[in-house]
Amino acid sequence: MKDNLNSYTTLNNGLKMPWLGFGVYQIEDGNEVQNAVSSALKLGYRSIDTATVYGNEIGVGKAIKESGIPREDIFLTTKVWNDDQRKNRTLAAFQESLKRLDTDYVDLYLIHWPVAGCYQKTWKVMEEIYKSGRAKAIGVSNFLVPHLQDILNLNTIVPSINQMEFHPYLVQPELLNFCQNHHIQMEAWSPLMQGHIVDVPTVQNIAKKYKKTPAQIVLRWDLQHEVITIPKSANPNRIIENTQIFDFELSQTEMEELDALDQSKRFGPDPANFDF
């Protein structure tokens, strides 16, 4: 059931993860990220997504600590950055993340990008971290079908999550089907197309019908696709708005109308061709 902010899915290793989380990409460390995460936690968000490269793990950790919410009630995600993969520093990078976050474990640790020649080796280290219990689940981010197939061919632990750019202009049905068939949970980053979602007439029309914002329509679309979503905002009103997606349901026709907007258009980098 996806009917409230506490609704969760069960990952392929049995771990429960909320359908709606809070992302902190491009939110500055210090007061800005602390205030944003604090607001989100007060509203009832229990999944927080950060990454080493965001540079705000310290602020995220402080906000969690100061919230008074038991650590086991918060689902915390972070990610290993590309340079750490290239330098064979995955284990050291993970330990540094724990220190910055001021926690003994994370709920989910992800490979941030599929760095050519590195990610298979990185995955082996991720497995050791998982077996140590210091990451309750491990997964990947920005992995296309060939990358996922490489990991599966290692005959090892199947990633619990694939976090991808996912929105009505980039539906990626082949990737979605592959993940579903292999029990890899899809998770959407940039679900609101970096703000461009407000300019899409089809989304605007559906939003008017439900008396919702275009953002709320697309976040609901994510959930009905069985895709976890982690919108980010430092704006308290938007943080609240993004939670108000559990009191309506899109029809099959509306889902298909939104799917039909697919242009294979990315607002972020292409996982098949990036240079950072």
UniProtKB/TrEMBL annotation:
Sequence similarity: Belongs to the aldo/keto reductase family.
Active site: 54
All residue ranges annotated as the NADP-dependent oxidoreductase domain in the record: 20-262
Taxonomic lineage of the native organism: Bacteria, Pseudomonadati, Bacteroidota, Flavobacteriia, Flavobacteriales
Binding site for substrate: 112
PROSITE patterns: ALDOKETO_REDUCTASE_1, ALDOKETO_REDUCTASE_2, ALDOKETO_REDUCTASE_3
InterPro entries per record: AKR, AKR5G, Aldo/ket_reductase_CS, NAD(P)_OxRdtase_dom_sf, NADP_OxRdtase_dom
Entry keywords, A to Z: NADP, Oxidoreductase
Pfam assignment, any one: Aldo_ket_red
Protein's name in the database: Aldo/keto reductase
Species assigned in the record: Mariniflexile litorale
MF terms in GO: oxidoreductase activity, acting on the CH-OH group of donors, NAD or NADP as acceptor
Site residues (Lowers pKa of active site Tyr), renumbered to this chain: 79
